[in-house]
Amino acid sequence: QVQLVESGGGLVQPGDSLRLSCTASGSSFNNHAFAWFRQAPGKEREGVACIGTSDSSTLYADSVNGRFTISRDNAKKTVYLEMNSLKPEDTGVYYCASGLWWGLTANAYENWGQGTQVTVSS
Predict the structure, then answer these.
(1) Who contacts 24 (Cβ-Cβ below 8 Å, separation ≥6)?
(2) Is 20 exposed, middle or buried, given 0-12, 13-18 or 19+ CB atoms closer than 10 A?
(3) Which of 11-15, 55-59, 83-87 has the lowest mean pLDDT?
(4) pLDDT of amino acid 6
(5) CB neighbourhood size of 85 (10 A)
(6) Is residue 41 left, alpha or beta, with left meaning phi > 0 and alpha meaning psi from -120 to 50?
(7) d(Cα 33, Cα 12) in Å, to the nearest integer?
(8) Tens digit of each residue's pLDDT (9 = 90 or more) over 11-31
């Protein structure tokens, strides 16, 4: 079992940058794939980015490709989501997830954090 805690959310203006962190506890970090999902009010949860057990395996939603970067630091048991050129439509609660499979669908992951709010507004 892996426990996940997200941090780094906040209120920013369009065009700003923000970095989210997901810190994991437990012994399975290196064997897990990780992903970031987001959910806007009234909308379904959507996959944003995922990363496999090595940095070369990453996948992004079309809506964030080229603006967001997912990375992992196995020594710190932390996964990051660097978000640049933020838009109002990036607003939502961002969740970190982990599991033995990877992809941008929620059912690939069995461990979830509580989420961190990101609001992009002028």
Answers:
(1) 2, 3, 4, 5, 32, 77, 78, 79, 98
(2) buried
(3) 55-59
(4) 97
(5) 13
(6) beta
(7) 28
(8) 999 999 999 999 999 878 888
